[in-house]
Amino acid sequence: MKSQSLPISTVVSMFLVLVFLSRSSHQYSASTKQAETNLVDTVCKETINNTNCLEFLESDPRTKNAMDLNDLAKLVLELALSNAKDSQNFINNMITGVYEPDHCQQVLEKCAFWYEAVVASFRSALLELEEDVMSANYDVEIAGDDAGNCENEMILNKVVIPSVSERNYQVKLYSNIGDVITNKLS
């Protein structure tokens, strides 16, 4: 039985194809990672606080898997909804706990009302994202406004609750990030 060998030109061609494919795969991986970073950077540069936006988005490892604005929008709204629910529970727990004086209790009850609306707005925005981006954009903005209403209630009544103010700021930031993204999608 006679052994047949491939012509040297075929071997060289196969080698060059493998090298090319290997380099292309590496370049694709690097360009994909660059695109993800650019996507987050581009969005955050347009928000009310670039640094906090970057911290927020980069704190969740799923942002690395966001392939486009649609993926990032869904992720941001899921995170915003989770944060809003957590804030709503936090405020409700403050109401049921001992918190003095009475006017603080009344302000917290109003904030609980506003946070019910915040949660509903983020939930609606998430559901509308794929079908009606403009409605999602509107609901995202309303969520931020509702957190602002809670903050305004505290200011109006001269009540200072830093933990609630911080949560209001977070909702406004998440709302702003969602607004930037949904504006880009429309």
From TrEMBL:
Residue intervals of the Pectinesterase inhibitor domain: 35-181
Protein name: Pectinesterase inhibitor domain-containing protein
InterPro entries referenced in this protein's UniProt entry, alphabetically: Invertase/methylesterase_inhib, Pectinesterase_inhib_dom, Pla_a_1-like
Source organism of the structure: Ficus carica (Common fig)
Stored CDD domains: PMEI-Pla_a_1_like
Lineage of producing organism: Eukaryota, Viridiplantae, Streptophyta, Embryophyta, Tracheophyta
GO MF term list: enzyme inhibitor activity
SMART domains hit by this protein: PMEI
UniProtKB keywords: Signal
